[in-house]
Amino acid sequence: MSTRRHLAVFTTASLPWMTGTAINPLFRAAYLAKDGDREVTLVIPWLSLRDQELVYPNKIVFGSPLEHEAYVRRWIEERISFRPSFSIKFYPAKFSKELRSILPVGDITECIPDEVADVAVLEEPEHLNWYHHGRKWKNKFRRVIGVVHTNYIAYVKREKNGQAIACFMKYMNTWVTRIYCHKIIRLSGATQDLPRSVVCNVHGVNPKFLEVGKLKLKQLRNGEIAFTKGAYYIGKMVWSKGYRELLDLLSKYQSKLVGLEVDLYGSGEDSDEVRKSAELLSLAVKVHPGRDHADPLFHDYKVFINPSTTDVVCTTTAEALAMGKIVICANHPSNEFFKQFPNCRTYDSGEEFVQLTLDALAEQPAPLTDMQSYDLSWEAATERFMEAAELNLPISAEPRIHQTSKASLPAFMRTRKLKQSLEDASVYLHQALSGLEVTRRAFGAVPKTLQPDEQLCNDLGLAPAKKKRLKLKLMT
């Protein structure tokens, strides 16, 4: 294999679904390919038309993967200053209404030819592998890096029988990441501890937000009024995204926050309930439909309030800091990265929240330094990713210890071989369970997703499942 690395970035969502696992891997692929030293492929889910209608907003649907790819490329090209040179491939997927998630169908390792299988970056490795039935990632790729985006444990604890489900999910996440990944990057300490993991925020912000920050800094230095609006919050409008915590704080301290005006922006399943709860407050809390955070509408707000504790690293918090705003957020592991910025104010109690909010509305934000702006950028995030993933090290082949008799192996190598044997057995067990329809259904998989159906095969130009099984039988 050439010493020029090939990185395949697999993720669990795609635009136009405006979720973190659609946006951040897209930026990662663009910036990993920026200097031309690496070949990069972004591998994203392809949904049938029926599933697209359930997932994508504003009735946006695509008749073919080529249409979808054009949409994704147009979106990223409008937000960066260079022409991205990565390629895009699609894997077959289905949308689960119960999990509100896109799940892979079949063996998605097949998207990358063996001859270029070097590094696999699994964005949400646990999610991609809960029901994985196919080639072992570590056997196909030299290096498999998982990037943990979502605090699934925190979410499921809010559901019925949440404690029991969270216990099972914690074990499952540990199991699949151990057997399929060489290294795990946890974006913050808010995620569960996983084998061979490090904590490092490897996300950046859309350059457009940094441009707004530079404009605001210029206005402040010229003595102009840079911010004409007060406080706001933006996020998917579901209770778990911090809306309950925020409205509880505003309700409890209404008498101390007299005159406070807060605008909430978001769309989601709980929009009507959030609106009704806001109407009960004596404070001026207005609820608006969701919008792109880059919309000029948000540029003049001075204070961003984010009480959410279910995020791993909140993208909108980073964007608000990049735009030069003061951010008020909970003192929580998910916000650890942001504490280095003077405009980030964290609270441990309701009284602190009140005082920080009043102070923020009365003060001007501290100007972002060049280094602080750089730390928020995707250039810096890409450097952090390469270091955390240990991809700056030279390519080296794995030692082939199986060629030596067990008796002549040094003790540490015998231990290593034993661990490998145990891992292989664990992979075999996972493959056996994930290959049974009854087991898959019992643990929440979409029915009949061991192989792509006829529609997905036609859309993606794949061989029908029967032919693939026959080919595999002949090969064995």
TrEMBL record:
Transmembrane segments: none
Identification of the protein by name: Digalactosyldiacylglycerol synthase 2, chloroplastic
Family affiliation: Belongs to the glycosyltransferase group 1 family. Glycosyltransferase 4 subfamily.
Keywords, in A-Z order: Chloroplast, Glycosyltransferase, Membrane, Plastid, Plastid outer membrane, Signal, Transferase
Predominant location: plastid
Entry GO MF terms: digalactosyldiacylglycerol synthase activity
EC number(s) recorded for this UniProt protein: 2.4.1.241
CDD domains: Glycosyltransferase_GTB-type (cd01635)
Enzyme class: transferase
